[in-house]
Amino acid sequence: MQNLMFMSSLRYQALQELNREEKKVSGYGGKKITAMFASNVFNGRTMREYLSDEAYKSLQSSIKSGSKIERRMADQVAAGMKAWAEERGVTHFTHWFQPLTGTTAEKHDSFFTIKSDGTAIELFDGDALIQQEPDASSFPNGGIRATFEARGYTAWDPSSPAFIMEAGSGKTLCIPTIFIAYNGESLDYKAPLLKSIAALDKAAVEVCNYFDKNVTKVTCTLGWEQEYFVVDETLANARPDLVMCGRTLIGHAPAKGQQLEDHYFGSIPERVYAFMQDFEQEAYKLGIPLRTRHNEVAPGQFECAPIFEECNIAVDHNSLLMDIMSKVAKRHKLKALMHEKPFAGVNGSGKHNNWSLATDTGVNLLSPGKTPRTNLMFLTFFVNAIKAVNDHADLLRAAIASANNDHRLGANEAPPAIISVYIGKYLTEVLNEVESRVKEKFSEQDEVILKLDIHKQIPELLMDNTDRNRTSPFAFTGNKFEFRAVGSSANCGSPMTVLNTIMTQSLKEFKRDVDALIEKGEKREIAIMHVLRDYISKSKNILFEGDNYSEAWAEEAKRRGLNNFKTTPEALNAYVSKAGKQVFFDNGIYTERELEARHEIMLEDYVKKVQIEARMIGYLSTNHVLPAAVEYQNVLIKNIQGLKDCGLGKESYKAQLNLVTKMSEHIQNINDNVEAMLEARKKANNTEDLHKRAEMYCHDVKSYFDKIRYHADKLELIVDDKTWPLPKYRELLFLR
Ligand code: ADP
Ligand code: MG
Fold first, then answer.
1. pLDDT digit string (tens) for 63-118?
2. Is 364's C-beta closer than 6 angstroms to any atom of ligand 1?
3. Which of 308, 466, 474, 492 to probe ligand 1 with, by most ligand atoms within 8 A of CB?
4. Residue 240 CB coordination number (10 Å)
5. Which CATH superfamily hosts domain 197-604?
6. What is the pLDDT of residue 466?
7. CA 404, CA 706: separation in Å to the nearest integer?
8. Ligand 1: does its nearest atom lie under 6 Å from the Cβ of 477?
9. Cα–Cα distance between 176 and 43 in angstroms, integer?
10. What is the distance between the alpha carbons of residues 132 and 112, in angstroms, rounded to a whole number?
């Protein structure tokens, strides 16, 4: 009987299967990456080949200026795309978009259609390219569509190239699109992102023109670094919590965790290596320029990163890659976990967002210059970025808030929920110098910029950066800012939209302030220095060079008046605060209604996630942990009875009795806490006000998770290993 139970445990089946697993290395088969790169992308080169001169030029100019494409031209572009796609065996097309569910969405239509006279033809015209009306009433909309019409539209984003997605032997032409409601209000990540990119372009060009009249376009660049865990799929499937929530809700820490620090940059396990090579090749075909792969700090944790790209494309590519990774993992019977905190007690996963600004003259605006003039330009953008974060830290915090990310930001783990900026020792000195020099009356000879000599100190600057602060949520890393607090499963669109918006706001204020001084007769460079000095003084509060994980910093931040929002419901308030609404509205990113809808969607998402986890931890405890505990308890009881029957005294079964008693306590505790949690959930569910409901889930419901988990994990340590039904941490993290 015991043996039968043992045989039927999903965990043991999974472990047996793992032993049979044949470990294969994919390899590139001698192919060069350049040979496959972007082979499934309708990019500039392909366009040249498949479009008429006229259509090509019109498309290029609309990409550059963001202007609308004429209907006639759209027909031509569609015909070119179709010809290109059909040559590659494509039969269907889809508008590909990123709704606020956090995943990507697609609905396939075939080119095939039947004309009124009954002839069957393949058709893809400008209309189908430009706009679709997905039957998508079940995407999150925060009430926007309920009020008007249940219709939503997807609209072509020509600035992100179309691509062919392969799944098995099926091939689909994917058109990147925005997703909006009937009245034009945005329902996705891309629409606001595009607005923020355009706003930033305009504001940054105006400021650039102080230094260089030739600049006509500024693009923001994003290079993300994606962290993830890889576990054996069969083992993962034996964990209902991993299947349903993407993270483990119970599980005792393994004897060996990451304390030996032997995983980081270690050699990549063969099976994972094969998976990586496989998804890399899929990514290359789609034009995702992956560059780096390595083990991360935690066992079973890895990272990949591409060469940076224009922000909109980089965001699309990250969404695409997460999707591809999940699909390709299945081929290897692996599961790629994007969750921010799949395992308690081991490092979580983030997604560093490296962000900078580039001009159409080829200058990285956050790269220290080689001449005094370009230095001043660098300093201008550098200081404005710091000021933007200082003025709107709460928005940045809101942009990365999610139920998942709370496990990193609010907990004792990198990075903290307090937003601060790290710039390194050298640049701190530079800022201090600017601030002090101009204290006295600023005169013509005192052109501080000319004396800063940043360009001569670049080696020092770079050295400083090799020693950069890994604990900071927002760090300057030599030629870009690195926003490290973004969660691994997040859509980068959300933090990038906020960053671009607040930078736009800062640059606009800067222009206004400098122009005001120039109007008063101040020389341009001097006016700029004056304003920069002022901004440095005003933004110093956000600069922090020390250890962001320390308790001392939390205290100091409090003294400085910096916010420390540890939970999502609290952090999200910034989106609907007066200041938050204002900055989005002034820069044309969101209307007030859009913000309120978005806020509602995010709160709802939070509630749903915690609700699902609460159900799951209840189910796991009652249906998995308790039966296993009771079963083992019975074995012990039988043993005690047997020993008694042999006429042995208390001494002979002391240990067994002790275990039986302990187990009873844990069982009782689990039972009581699960019941209390159920009550708390009922109360929360009956609360009409969404914000209050979210708060209740956050503080009342969720507080039972740790209590339940504590006792479940204690039972895991006691219960006979072969009776324990759930794959253990050591198996999930170390076996593959
Ligand atoms: P690490 O931070 O891991 O030491 P790097 O500093 O070399 O590595 O680069 C990290 C990431 O920064 C890479 O993904 C790269 O694409 C990105 N990056 C580099 N330059 C820029 C830039 N100008 N704009 C945006 N991202 C950039
Ligand atoms: Mg990095």
1. 887 778 888 899 999 999 999 999 999 999 999 999 988 788 887 888 888 888 88
2. yes
3. 308
4. 16
5. Glutamine synthetase/guanido kinase, catalytic domain (3.30.590.10)
6. 43
7. 15
8. yes
9. 13
10. 16
Alpha carbon separation from 704 to 401, 625, 678 (Å, rounded): 21, 16, 10
pLDDT single digits (tens) 516-566: 999 999 888 889 989 999 999 999 999 999 989 888 999 999 999 999 999
Position 1 confidence tier, pLDDT thresholds 50, 70, 90: very low
Find out whether the beta carbon of 222 lies less than 6 Å from any atom of ligand 1: yes
- Mean local confidence (pLDDT), 561-579: 96
Q: What span, in angstroms and rounded, lies between the C-alpha atoms of 39 and 27?
A: 18
**Ligand 2 centre from 225 Cα, in Å?**
7
pLDDT reported for residue 451 = 53
Taking the C-alpha atoms of residue 655 and residue 660, their distance in angstroms, rounded to an integer, is 9
Q: Is the pLDDT of residue 356 over 90?
A: yes
Q: What is the DSSP string of 126-166?
A: HHHHHEE----TTS--TTHHHHS-S-EEEEE-TTS--EEEE
- Whether the per-residue pLDDT at 409 is higher than 70: the answer is yes
> Which residue among 480, 484, 500 has the greatest number of ligand 1 atoms within 8 angstroms of its CB, and so is best to mutate?
480
Write down the residue that tokens 């499937």 correspond to: 237
Atom of ligand 1 nearest to the CA of 224: 14
Mean pLDDT of 19-45: 84
Domain assignments of the chain as residue spans, ordered by start: 31-188, 197-604
CA angle 117, 123, 124 (to 5 degrees): 145
381 lines ligand 1 (CB under 6 A): no
Classify residue 142 as left (phi > 0), alpha (psi -120 to 50) or beta: left
User: Is the separation of the CB atoms in 150 and 137 below 8 Å?
Assistant: yes
Judged against a pLDDT cut of 90, whether residue 412 lies above it is answered with no
On the CB side of 590, CA atoms within 13 Å amount to 27
Are the beta carbons of 322 and 372 closer than 8 angstroms? no
CATH topology classification for 31-188: Ubiquitin-like (UB roll) (3.10.20)
pLDDT at 450: 47
Rounded to the nearest 10 degrees, what angle do helices 626-645 and 703-718 cross at? 40
Ligand 1: does its nearest atom lie under 6 Å from the Cβ of 305? yes
Block residue for tokens 């050699």: 267
Contact 603, 441 (CB under 8 A): no
